[in-house]
Amino acid sequence: MGRGGQSQLQPQQTFTAPQTSGPDGKAASVDVIELWKAQYPLPDEDVAGSFNEVKQLYRPPHNDAKGVSIAVGLIVAWCLLFYHGCWQIKLTGTQRSWWIDIAGTFLMLEFVNTGLFITTHDAMHGTICYRNRKLNDVLGRIAITLYAWFDYDMLHKKHWEHHGHTGQPGKDPDFHRGNPALPVWYARFMWEYSTPLQFAKIILASQVLQAAGVPYANLCIFMAAAPLVAAFRLFYYGTYLPHLPPDAKEIMVWQKSHSSDAPRWLSFLKCYHFDYHWEHHRWPFAPWWELPKAKEIVQQQRSQKQLLQ
User: Fold this and answer.
1) What is the mean pLDDT of the chain?
2) Which residues pair with 20 in a beta bridge?
3) Which of 180, 189, 117, 135 is closest to 11 using CA atoms?
4) Residue 21 forms beta bridges with which residues?
C-alpha cells in the first residue's frame, strides 16, 4: 500500500510490560495506556469536536488473552474456509458442489477476509497484544499475508500518516485527491495500496496452489474475488463513509469523522464495528471488538449533557 521510506514509528522487536511494585509490595503492571503512548501517538486534541471530557473514560482490556484469541480464531477460520473453498468445493463437472455450499463459503470467506484486515489494523495500533509488541506484529503479518500479501511495514507507515493527517489531501494516503466520488476515490485508494511485489507474490502463490491441485476457477473465486469484495467493504465502511466531506474542498480532520448509530449486531456485520469511526480516532488504543463499548461511553456522555442543558 503506498510507496515511501520507513515509518517514524519503527516497530520494536518486543515491548513487554515492565513490572513495578504495587501498594501491597507485589509486582504490578505498568498502566497499559502509558505503554501504548510510549510507542504510538495520541490524536490531536486541540481542535473543536475532540470531546476531551470523555478521553479518560475508556480503558483498554485488563489482559491480552481475548485479543490474541480473536486474532488466532480469525486466522484459523480463514485457513479452514480457504481450504474448503479451494480443495473441497467442485465448481464444474458431474460432482459439482451444491450452490448453497459455494455461496455460503464465499460469503463467509469474504467476511473473514475483512476480519483479517481488521486484525492487521489492530496490530498496527498495537491492540492485539498490548504487552508484547513482537507477538502483536507477528499476528498482524500473518493476517495481512493471508489476506492479500501486503507489506506490513509499509501499511504501518501509511496508516499512521492517515491518523496524523486525517482528511488532508496529499498528506492522508486514505483521503481523496480532490474528487470524492466513490469510483474515483476507491480507484485512487487501491492504487495507493498496491505494489508490484504484492502482485508478484500473489501470482507465485497462485502457481503453487494450482500445482497443489487447486482448480483455476476456485482460485478466481476464493483467492481473488473474496478479498476484492472485502477490500470494497473495508473502504466503504472504514474510509469512504466515515471521511466523506460535505464539500470536496473541505479538510476532514478526525473530529469530523462520521460515526454510525447502527446497533451492535449490524455494526459487526457491516465491517467489524469500523462504522463506529469517530470512536476509533478518539481512542486509537481501543481494539475493534471494544468499539461498541467506546460508542456507549460517547452516547451516555452526550445524553447527560443534553439533560443538563
Assistant:
1) 90
2) 28
3) 135
4) 27
